[in-house]
């Protein structure tokens, strides 16, 4: 039997200035039972201290001067040389089996284009963690799964084939700092690509995104902007079920605006 070389996995971590969290994130990556091909830390305005943390952990620091998470993430995907591109936020900590689960998801499903998973709010008490994580991800995957007609990628925890990124890289709104880059990428994946939610793919994340009313309001505003920028994809979704996703619009389709303008 011919030997099959396992796919190489590049890990992309966009960072503005997050030295304490980044150190923990990179320590967790160093403990993976399947080691990454490379770890790319995208410098989107990092302090000298944060850059030192990245280099001390053996990561490659890739500069991106255009401000915004969308630009930083896209720069990282462009620079990746692995067969698979995995994405983490700098405040996420992956368990030892994270890359093994990613590799396994693509191995058992050769037609899979991307896989995504959960974020667990590790800095809460056990009871509050369960409620907050279930509520946040229930809304995220439930609402956006219906609204987008696609399993939404979660920026703190997903992976895609590099070949898929190369097909859509010119379509994402990388120069717009107001978009949610993960939702934008989800919508630019389009009608024919397959994304799967994998419950076993879980990482620990901080509660910063939901820690205050202003942060939540900013997130909601960015969501609305992202959807307006992808009005063409939402119009496609209104037409019915997108190919190969397992999500459809059904009766909730009437809740979407009949016309959306970027």
Automatic annotation (TrEMBL):
Top-level taxonomic group: Bacteria
This protein's GO CC annotations: plasma membrane
Function: Catalyzes the glycosylation of 4,4'-diaponeurosporenoate, i.e. the esterification of glucose at the C1'' position with the carboxyl group of 4,4'-diaponeurosporenic acid, to form glycosyl-4,4'-diaponeurosporenoate. This is a step in the biosynthesis of staphyloxanthin, an orange pigment present in most staphylococci strains.
UniProt main location, coarse: membrane
Keyword Transcription: no
Record keywords: Cell membrane, Glycosyltransferase, Membrane, Transferase
Cited InterPro entries: Glyco_trans_2-like, Nucleotide-diphossugar_trans
Family: Belongs to the glycosyltransferase 2 family. CrtQ subfamily.
Subcellular location: Cell membrane
Name of the protein this chain belongs to: 4,4'-diaponeurosporenoate glycosyltransferase
């Amino acid at each position: 039997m011919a030997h099959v070389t396992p796919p190489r996995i590049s890990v992309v971590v966009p960072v503005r200035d997050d030295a304490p969290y980044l150190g923990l994130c990179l320590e967790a990556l160093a403990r993976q039972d399947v080691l990454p091909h490379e770890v790319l830390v995208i410098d989107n305005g990092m302090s000298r201290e944060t850059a030192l943390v990245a280099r001390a952990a053996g990561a490659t620091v890739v500069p991106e001067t255009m401000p915004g998470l969308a630009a930083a993430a896209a720069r990282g995907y462009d620079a990746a040389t692995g067969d698979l591109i995995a994405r983490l936020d700098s405040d996420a900590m992956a368990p030892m089996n994270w890359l093994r689960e990613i590799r396994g998801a693509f191995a058992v499903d050769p037609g899979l284009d991307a896989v995504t998973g959960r974020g667990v709010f590790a800095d809460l008490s056990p009871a509050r963690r369960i409620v907050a994580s279930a509520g946040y991800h229930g809304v995220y995957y439930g609402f956006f799964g219906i609204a987008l007609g696609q399993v939404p990628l979660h920026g703190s925890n997903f992976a895609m084939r590099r070949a898929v990124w190369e097909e859509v890289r010119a379509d994402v709104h990388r120069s717009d700092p107001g978009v949610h880059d993960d939702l934008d990428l989800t919508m630019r994946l389009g009608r024919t690509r397959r994304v799967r939610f994998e419950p076993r793919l879980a990482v620990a994340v901080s509660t910063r995104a939901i820690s205050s009313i202003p942060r939540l309001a900013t997130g909601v505003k960015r969501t609305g902007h992202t959807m307006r920028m992808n009005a063409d994809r939402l119009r496609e979704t209104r037409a019915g079920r997108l190919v190969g996703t397992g999500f459809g619009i059904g009766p909730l389709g009437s809740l979407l605006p009949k016309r959306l303008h970027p």
